[in-house]
Specification:
This protein is of the alpha+beta class. Among the domains are: 181 residues, Immunoglobulin-like; 92 residues, Sandwich (Immunoglobulin-like), CATH 2.60.40.1840; 130 residues, Zincin-like fold (Alpha Horseshoe), CATH 1.25.50. It is 40% helix and 22% strand. It has 26 helices and 31 strands. The strands form eight sheets. An eight-stranded mixed sheet has the order 6-5-9-3-2-12-15-14, with no helix packed on it. The protein has a five-stranded mixed sheet with strand order 17-18-19-21-20, covered by helices on one side. It is globular. The structure holds diaminopropanoic acid (DPP) and zinc ion (ZN). Belongs to the peptidase M1 family.
C-alpha cells in the first residue's frame, strides 16, 4: 500500500455543485442512483475521476446518454469518465449490500436499522464520487423503503416531500440547503421513536430537535436532550454561533466505529453516548454523553460550516472542537476537576503515542490509511494547541480570532494555517514559532530550576527544553512554550509573585524575580498550560508543600501525583522507600474541609500502573504493580479511620445528578477502594452492601470494580448477580466484561481468555470488542504477563477482527508497539506478534500501516 503525502495536495480537477441521490433501500441489496452536475475547476485536460470501493456498477450516463463499457474505465478504486466542455451531468447506478457491510463504513445495518458512516472515506462505499473534503455539494436525497420495516426515513436538511410507493413501500425526499463535503452525508432508515423538543435560537428561530432510538430506549434519552439544548445555548453565548437549520436530529445505533458523527443536522451516535439513566449509566457516562453531544453539535460550525481542505488538516476541526467541548464541560461543574480529567486522558493516550513508533505531528505529513489518524494526537494534543493560543491571546482576543476565522472561512474548506493566521491577525500576536507545534511531533521535556538568593531577596528561574527525536524527525527546533507561573512563599504558603504567563522560546532561558519577601517555591505550568513533560527537580518535602498549599488546583493535584509517582518508582528501582510524605499529603487533602469532594477524590487517587510505566526507561510491570499495591495498602491501613469517615460522610443520600452529588459518589468510590486496601475485616461486607443496595450504576459499578479486583469469596457472586441482572442490556454488559478485563488480579489473562469464549462476547460489535480486548490491552500487568500469552491473545484478535472491521482492528494495535520500552524477552515476544500480524492473509491497509510502523 502506498502513502498519501500532505505536500502532494492539489485542488480538485472537477467540482460537484449538486447531486441528487436516489436510494432504493433494502438491507440485502440496495440500489443507489446518483445524478451529479460536475464543473471543470480551472483549466486542465483531466478526465473525471470518481472514487468507489466495493460498488457493483450497473449503469453510467453522461449528459443523459447511457455509456457503453468502453466509454469509461473502472479499477478497484476509481471510475474514470472522459469529459469535454466545462460542465456535464453524470449519472451512475450502483448496487450495494448493507447487510454484508461488517466494516461499518458506508451504508450498513445495525440491529435492523440502516445507517451510514462516511468520515473519512466511507461515501465512496455508497456511490462513485470525488471523495475528498474540499468538494462541497448541495444534496437532494430521495429514499424508498418498506414502510413496515423502515417507518422512519431521515437524511440531512429538511424533509421536503414524502409519499407512498408500491408494495407497501414509502418514500421521502430530503434537501440540505448548505453545500457540504460528502463525509457529512447521512441517511437513516428504521423503526425508531423520537424524543422531541424545541430550541429557540437567540435570533428567535425555532429548531425542532429529535433524538431517535428504539422505542424501549426512549426513557434513556432525556439527559442527551438536555445536553443538546445546553450546547446550543452555550455556543451562542460563548462563541456567538447560532444553529442554521430548522431541525436537528440525532440517531443512536449499537454498532459504530467512532463515538459519534457530526453529519450535517443528522448526527449518528454510538448508543453508549446517548442512552443513560441512573440504573444503567454511571456519572462518568453522563459526563461523557454531555461532552460528546456537545462535541458533535459544536462541529456544526467548527467542522461543517468551515470544514477541512484535506485530511492532513483533521485537527483543524477536531482539535478546536475538542477544546470547545472541554470548555463546555468545564462550565458545567468543577473546572479544576474537568481539567484534571483532560490531562489524565492526554497522558494516558497521547503522551505514549507521542513517545512511540506511531508518533506523528498534530498535522501529519503522510498516511497510508487516514482512519489511523483519528488519534489522541490529532484530537487531544490538537486541543492543547488551541488552549495554548487561548492562554497566550487571552479570552477576549481569542474570541476575536475565532470570529475572524469563521467570517473568513465560512462555507469553505480550510487549513490549520488559516486558523493560526486568523488568531494572529485578530490579536496582533506573532505565532510564527508557535506553528512548530503543528509540525513537530514528540512531547517537549521542560526542566525548571529556581535558585533563591536570600541576600538580595531575588531568585533566578532557569528553564530549558528538549524535544525528543521521533520517527522521521531526528532533529527538533525549540518550541514556543507558554507556562503559567507563580511563586509561593515558603513560610506563608501564599502567592508572593502572582500568576503570569512565561514564554519559553529558547533552548535555555533565565528569568529573574526580585523583591521576594520570603523564600519562594515554584509553581509552574499551572492549569497545565502546555502539553509538556515537566521536570522541576523538587524534593518530596516541596512536593508535599505544594500539594497542600498551591492555590492552582491543577498544580496542587500535579504535585501530589508527582510525589506518588516518585515514591512508586523509588520502590521499583530498589531505592529506600518512604511512604510517609505521600500518606501525610493524602491525609491533609482528604481531611481539608474547604476542598471540593470531586477534587479530593481525584487528588488522592494513585497514578495508574501504565502511567508509572510511562515514566520509566524500561517498564517493569510486576514490580510496578507490587510497589503501587504496597503504597495503596499502606495508605489504606494508616488512614483507615479517615477513609471510613470519608466513606460514611459521602453515603446515605438518595440519587440525584448534579455536580455536588457526583462529587460525593466519586469520593465514596475512591474511599471504598482504600477501605478495601486497608485490610479491615468489614471491607468485603461494605463493598457487597454497596453493590447490592445501590440505587444507581455509579455506586454499583464502583463496588463491582473493587470486588473484581479482590481475592474475596464474595467476588464470584457479585459478578454473577451483575450478569443476571443486566444480561439483556448491551451497554451494561460491556461494563461487566470491562471490569474483569481491567482487574489487577493475577488470573486476569486466563479469565479474559475464557470471557472471549463467552456466548455474549462478540467480535462484530465494536463496543463489545473494545470492552474486553481493548480494555485488556490497557491493563499493563495482565497484558504484559511474562508468558507472552497476553501478546498472543491480542494479536489473534487483531487478525480475526481485521477480516471483519479493519478500522476497529487497527485501533487495538498500539499496546504491541511499546516493545522498545520492555525487557528483551518481552520486547522480542511483542515484535514476534507484530511480525505474525504482518504475515497475515489479506491484511487491511489499516492494520498493515499500524503494524509495520510499530516494528519500524
Ligand atoms: N465522529 C468523529 C468526531 O466527532 C469524527 N469526526 O470526532
Ligand atoms: Zn469530532
Amino acid at each position: 500500500p502506498s502513502a498519501t503525502l500532505r505536500e502532494d495536495y492539489s485542488p480538485p480537477d472537477w467540482l460537484v455543485p449538486e447531486i441528487a441521490l436516489d436510494f432504493s433501500l433494502d438491507p440485502a441489496r440496495t440500489l443507489v442512483r446518483a445524478r451529479m452536475t460536475v464543473v471543470r475547476h480551472e483549466a486542465h485536460d483531466e478526465p473525471l475521476r470518481l472514487d468507489g470501493e466495493g460498488l457493483k456498477l450497473l449503469e453510467v450516463r453522461r449528459n443523459g446518454e447511457k455509456l457503453d463499457d468502453g466509454d469509461w474505465m473502472l479499477d478497484d478504486e476509481r471510475l474514470t469518465i472522459p469529459l469535454t466542455g466545462s460542465e456535464a451531468t453524470v449519472e451512475t447506478l450502483v448496487e450495494i449490500l448493507p447487510e454484508k457491510n461488517s466494516q461499518l463504513m458506508g451504508l450498513y445495518a445495525s440491529g435492523g436499522i440502516l445507517c451510514t458512516q462516511c468520515e473519512a472515506e466511507g461515501f465512496r462505499r455508497i456511490t462513485f464520487f470525488p471523495d475528498r473534503p474540499d468538494v462541497l455539494t448541495r444534496y437532494s436525497v430521495r429514499m424508498e423503503a418498506d414502510r413496515k420495516r423502515f417507518p422512519v426515513l431521515l437524511s440531512n436538511g429538511d424533509c421536503v416531500e414524502s409519499g407512498d410507493g408500491e408494495n407497501g413501500a414509502h418514500w421521502a425526499r430530503w434537501e440540505d440547503p448548505w453545500p457540504k463535503p460528502c463525509y457529512l452525508f447521512a441517511l437513516v432508515a428504521g423503526d425508531l421513536s423520537a424524543n422531541r423538543d424545541t430550541f429557540v435560537t437567540r435570533s428567535g428561530k425555532e429548531v425542532a430537535l429529535a433524538i431517535w432510538v428504539r422505542e424501549a430506549d426512549l426513557p434513556k434519552t432525556s439527559h442527551a436532550m438536555q445536553a443538546l439544548k445546553d450546547s446550543m445555548a452555550w455556543d451562542e453565548h460563548v462563541y456567538g454561533r447560532e444553529y442554521d437549520l430548522s431541525q436537528f436530529n440525532i440517531v443512536a445505533v449499537s454498532d459504530f466505529n467512532f463515538g459519534a458523527m457530526e453529519n450535517k443536522s443528522l448526527n449518528i451516535f454510538n448508543s453508549r453516548y446517548i442512552l443513560a439513566d441512573a440504573e444503567t449509566a454511571t456519572d462518568a457516562d453522563f459526563e461523557a454523553i454531555a461532552g460528546v453531544v456537545a462535541h458533535e453539535y459544536f462541529h456544526n460550525w467548527s467542522g461543517n460550516r468551515v470544514t477541512c481542505r484535506d485530511w492532513f488538516q483533521l485537527s483543524l476541526k477536531e482539535g478546536f472542537t475538542v477544546f470547545r467541548d472541554q470548555q463546555f464541560s468545564a462550565d458545567q461543574g468543577s473546572a479544576a476537576v474537568a481539567r484534571i480529567g483532560d490531562v489524565r486522558m492526554l497522558r494516558a493516550a497521547q503522551f505514549p503515542e507521542d513517545a512511540g513508533p506511531l508518533a506523528h505531528p498534530v498535522r501529519p505529513e503522510s498516511y497510508i490509511e487516514i482512519s489511523n489518524f483519528y488519534t489522541a494526537t490529532v484530537y487531544n494534543k490538537g486541543a492543547e494547541l488551541i488552549r495554548m493560543m487561548h492562554a497566550m491571546l487571552g479570552p477576549h482576543d481569542f474570541r476575536k480570532g475565532a470570529d475572524l476565522y469563521f467570517e473568513r472561512h465560512d462555507g469553505t474548506a480550510a487549513t490549520c494555517e488559516d486558523f493560526v493566521t486568523a488568531m494572529e491577525d485578530a490579536s496582533g500576536t506573532d505565532l510564527g514559532q508557535f506553528r512548530l507545534w503543528y509540525s513537530q511531533s514528540g512531547t517537549p521535556k521542560v526542566t525548571a530550576k529556581l535558585d533563591y538568593e536570600a541576600e538580595d531577596a531575588s531568585a533566578v528561574l532557569t528553564l530549558s527544553q528538549t524535544v525528543p527525536a521521533t520517527p522521521g524527525q531526528p532533529e527538533k527546533k525549540p518550541m514556543a512554550i507558554p507556562l503559567k507561573t507563580a511563586l509561593l512563599g515558603e513560610r506563608s504558603g501564599r502567592p508572593i509573585v502572582a500568576e503570569h504567563l512565561v514564554m519559553l522560546t529558547d533552548n535555555e532561558q533565565e528569568i529573574v524575580f526580585e523583591g521576594l519577601r520570603e523564600p519562594p517555591v515554584l509553581s509552574i505550568n499551572r492549569d497545565f498550560t502546555a502539553p509538556v513533560a515537566m521536570d522541576s527537580e523538587k524534593d518530596p518535602a516541596t512536593l508535599a508543600f505544594l500539594s497542600a498549599h498551591d492555590d492552582d488546583p491543577f498544580a496542587r493535584y500535579e504535585a501530589m501525583q508527582q510525589l506518588m509517582v516518585e515514591t512508586i518508582i523509588d520502590a521499583v528501582s530498589g531505592r529506600p522507600v518512604d511512604h510517609d510524605p505521600v500518606i501525610e499529603a493524602v491525609r491533609q487533602t482528604l481531611t481539608d474541609p474547604d476542598l471540593d469532594k470531586a477534587f479530593i477524590a481525584e487528588a488522592v487517587l494513585l497514578p495508574s500502573e501504565s502511567f508509572v510505566g510511562d515514566q520509566m526507561l524500561i517498564v517493569e510491570p510486576e514490580a510496578i504493580h507490587r510497589a503501587r499495591e504496597a503504597l495503596r495498602d499502606d495508605l489504606g491501613e494508616t488512614l483507615a479511620e479517615d477513609w471510613r469517615a470519608a466513606y460514611a460522610a459521602s453515603s446515605g443520600n438518595a440519587y440525584t445528578y448534579n455536580p455536588a452529588a457526583t462529587g460525593l459518589r466519586r469520593l465514596r468510590a475512591v474511599a471504598l477502594g482504600y477501605v478495601a486496601a486497608s485490610g479491615l475485616d468489614e471491607a468485603p461486607q461494605l463493598a457487597t452492601d454497596q453493590f447490592e443496595s445501590a440505587d444507581n450504576m455509579t455506586d454499583r459499578q464502583a463496588a463491582l470494580a473493587v470486588l473484581a479486583n479482590s481475592e474475596w469469596p464474595e467476588r464470584t457472586g457479585a459478578l454473577e448477580q451483575f450478569y443476571d441482572r443486566y444480561r439483556n442490556d448491551a451497554l451494561v454488559l460491556d461494563k461487566w466484561f470491562m471490569a474483569q478485563a481491567l482487574s489487577t488480579r493475577e488470573d486476569t489473562l486466563a479469565s479474559v481468555e475464557a470471557l472471549s469464549r463467552h456466548p455474549d462476547f462478540s467480535i462484530d460489535n465494536p463496543n463489545r470488542l473494545r470492552s474486553l480486548v481493548g480494555a485488556f490491552g490497557s491493563n499493563q500487568r495482565a497484558f504484559h504477563a511474562a508468558s507472552g500469552h497476553g501478546y498472543r491473545f491480542l494479536a489473534d484478535f487483531i487478525l480475526k477482527a481485521d477480516a471483519i472491521n479493519p478500522q476497529t482492528a487497527a485501533r487495538l494495535l498500539p499496546p504491541l508497539g511499546k516493545w522498545r520500552r520492555f525487557d528483551e524477552e518481552r520486547g522480542a515476544m511483542m515484535r514476534a506478534e507484530l511480525e505474525r500480524i504482518l504475515a497475515g492473509p489479506n491484511l487491511s491497509k489499516d492494520v498493515f500501516e499500524q503494524a509495520s510502523k510499530s516494528l519500524g
